[in-house]
Write a structure and sequence with these properties.
Structural class: mainly alpha
Number of strands: 0
Radius of gyration: 19 Å
Order of helices and strands: HHHHHH
Helix content: over 70%
Distance between the termini: 48 Å
Largest sheet: none
Amino acid sequence: MTSRVVSALGATGGDLLAFAFALIATIASFAGEDPAAYAFPRLLAVLMLVFCSANLARCAIARFTGESVLTFDLARKIAPGVAVFAVYLLVARELGFYLAALLAFFAVSFLYSAHRHPGRIAIVTGAVIGVLYLMFSVLLKVQVPREFFL
């Protein structure tokens, strides 16, 4: 049954797994008693569900038009970003959320930027992390992982 759904959609098992996770996260975020406490996770879960649904639709359209959904060349281009994300997950607890996010954002920006100017990337990275700090810690008062640096 599952293989028929996967082949009909043109999706991979990972696509369906991500969609299932997003659906479960969305349902769980609406199950809480205090709506204000779950506003941010609810927003993220709904956005994740929307993006996963759009990805499944893209896979289905590609399947019916005969296009390849994921090519080796595309996977090769995505791999460095996935590696940065994996390293981020490994070091985020030791370095703290903001420092790890700063390093990961800088690395991804440097890898995928059309113009690799480290100074500009550093300024933009600092601005984005500053906005994250203001949004999470000041405005939303969300508890982020705090270890070595913040």
